[in-house]
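#struct-help
A.M.: can someone run this one for me? Single chain, 417 residues.
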Amino acid sequence: MATPEVVEPSVPPTGEPTPRRALLPLLLVANSAMMALYMGVGSVLLPTQIAAIAPDDKVAVLGLIGGISAVFATAFNPIAGALSDRSGRRNPWIVGGGLASLALLAALGSATTALLVGIGWCLIQATMNVFQAAVTAIVPDRIPAARRGTASALVGLGLPIGGTVGVLVASQTADQLRTGYLVLGAIVAGSALLLSTFCRDVARTEPAAPAPAKARGAQLAAFLSALANHDFRWAFIGRALMVLGYFSVVGYQLYILDDHITLPGGLTPPAAMAVLTPVSMVAMAVSTVVGGLLSDRWNRRKVFVGVSAALAGLVMVVPVISPTWTGMLVFSALNGLAFGCFMAVDTALVTLVLPRAEDAARDMGVLNIANAGPQIIAPFVASAVVTGLGGYTPLFLVGGALSLVGALAILPIRSVR
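D.P.: on it. Structure tokens below:
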């Protein structure tokens, strides 16, 4: 099979796009705002609200709402991306998604039943995916190939920065839920207005004319057509395996600290989480920046992606060998380093293997299935491993194996070094 041609983003006749001075910092702000909402609501505000509504069934209700909303997000991101591609513009979708999320968060703060909370969170996932799909597509739209690693590194910093801010805001407003929801919604809406005001849409290909009606099967085939591309398919597989391995373990970290790790006297599992999370986030921020910059300087993507995925797999052995507080600190730091570098450089790699520039948002939305899909599956995989194989040692080993196979999936990619 011939090596597929990498199609660069469509640009004005003047040549390769040069990002405006404010574009990269504002992309960082937008992605940080998005992660602040996801982390603040998902880890603090939503569980607090559900516990107040259904204290006896809070675990089951939170799991049900989280699973349904994750399915909703996985399906809606590529749909929103395709609509953004068809319109030929990004900013209206960014602003619309941000403002709609603010309005829905205000309503969610007043919800008094589990059903209303579930409906509200699913709708917020929809509007946030409108925002996310358009923001994500700006990198292949506007950033030259030689700067993709740097841009992806800044985008990747949104997780440690936004996650920290979101959890801090949510923790301070947990007893005033509506205020917390409004503050996080205002952060997203404000970032949308900033990005669209100072970085206007650039000339792109003309919006696509409405296509003739197709059978549902043909529409789905066109929708997922990027997976027919050899390099994009392998990048998708590698991302999915890495994310599945990571979240299968991280999602159960509180239980691991309670049942598997020997903690120092007086240190509770929640207090230990409050220490481990910043350790992991700082390490993630460092590796995100360093990995992105070095991948640009050396014009190499695969080695950074493969090595970081392999490291993520190998460090899973640390809590197995040393199920102690020190072992968990070492694991958190190394796992953060590996995951941060992987996500930053892998995002740059994916933008270089997109089959068609005019479908960039749609195809990046398809890639998001490799992010969100494994997060839906991870709790079921982890539960089956822990109960079926007897404890958390097999969970670490399975998570590590998934990451190692994800590292191997990068090797067949041919069009990127």
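A.M.: thanks! The two ends are 18 Å apart (CA to CA).
D.P.: also worth noting: The chain has a mean pLDDT of 80.
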